[in-house]
Amino acid sequence: MSPTTKAQRRARDRMAHTGEKYTTALRAVLAEHPSVPGDRVNLQITEPLFDPFDAKADDAVDLVWPTGLLVPSRPPSICYLDLLHWVGLAKAANGHPDGERYELALVAARDAKAAGAAVFPLSGSHYMEIAKIQNRRHRADLAAIMEELSEFVSLTARSVIMRLELESAFDAHLGVFLPALGPLPLLGMGVNHSVGVMDDISYSADPRDRGQEARRLRALGFLNLLLSNQRSEFERTVLRGPQDDPTESSLLKRGWDPRAAVKVAGERLAREEELVEILDADPKWRKGRLRDVISARELTHEALDLFTLARMRRGAGFEKIFDDRPQIRQFVRGMPSMEVAIEMKTRYHRSRSSKWDVNTIFDIDAMSVSVPYCDAVVTERHAADTLNRAHVGGKMHTAIMASPGEMAEWFGTLS
Question: What is the sign of the dihedral through the CA atoms of 148, 149, 153 and 154?
Fold first, then answer.
């Protein structure tokens, strides 16, 4: 049970005995127990941060775009495809019967690329999802169309974007503008860029991990020694995976773990499943300020280390940063990638029937980077419907679609 949940349960117990409102009961509990055993933070509030019985409309926030992110000029348009649609294009390219409905989209994508009107970047989520594909021929076919359309161009990692967004969020909130980190490019080359390992990273590694910088330099040193054709072959091999038993056996003996990313995503999935249990136990949270709850969890679980680094860079103590709930809300949700993740998780958790799995985590990561920073995103229908119902596409000037027909029509306007 989380520390926050202990306080909330004590508040509900108090309500049952005293008849007090939840807000009054929570204030009393926190006054009696200012630091619940196991808490890392001494909870001091002047107003309730999260009131599950407050069902007022969520307040809007202003997006704060990162000054340290180098976003390429347009054209070409940046078009992100969910793995589902890459698979459809691969089937169309190989004459598979299931690929017939993607034939027009494939033609339109090839034409847009040939005209220099579109770029189709890969992402870290793609590499992680592809690693789960066990059928070697299917994976090779998929890798071939991804290479053709992307030429191994990739979006930078969500962690890189979050750090740059946090820097700009602190600048906007405190009104003190430090020299921007970066600039770091949104688009780069290959798998290393997609996981945040890049040549021109211009800020120091996390000082608490002495081995991080050494690992980064070893990876870059190896890649920088490769000639152009060798680099392409390396990237091709990463996408295709081992294509025979001896190669796969050799890689496994040397420590290769194709499911490493899935294991990490599984740990993050467990946190969402924990929240499902909490919401099932007290459904009123689903009708109230659930978005505030998701916002707090997103900052704590996904960005706390990066938040701490940005705060330390400014020499600011936590108690000096925020005065009230609206300031916290603006700070967290003003970061574009964070706002997308919060919106998706809020709407998924709002429904008791939502199903969570590892792919959900990969999809949210992919949408968090692609929706704010690409011109078009083609994803699975549930994600597209969730984002469009929340008007996220309009807010971020991104076309979000789900069908090969929409894809073909949009790509056709480019060339």
Answer: negative
DSSP characters over 251-314? HHHTT--TTHHHHHHHHHHHHHHHHHHHHHH-THHHHSSHHHHHHHHHHHHHSHHHHHHHHHHH
Is 90 exceeded by the pLDDT of residue 100? yes
Length of the chain: 415
> 380: phi > 0 → left, psi -120 to 50 → alpha, else beta; which?
beta
Domain ranges of the chain: 1-48, 56-415
Contact 393, 371 (CB under 8 A): yes
Residue 133: strand, helix, or coil = coil
Helix (H) or strand (E) holding 378: strand 376-378
Cα–Cα nearest to 123, from 101, 84, 96, 150: 150
How many helical (H) and strand (E) elements, i.e. helices and strands, does the chain have?
A: 21, 8
Residues 105, 111, 113, 119, CA torsion sign: negative
CA separation, residue 114 to residues 108, 148, 411, 413 (Å): 10, 11, 12, 14
**pTM, full prediction:** 0.79
Reported as a pLDDT band with limits 50, 70 and 90, residue 232 is confident
CB neighbours of residue 27 within 10 Å: 17
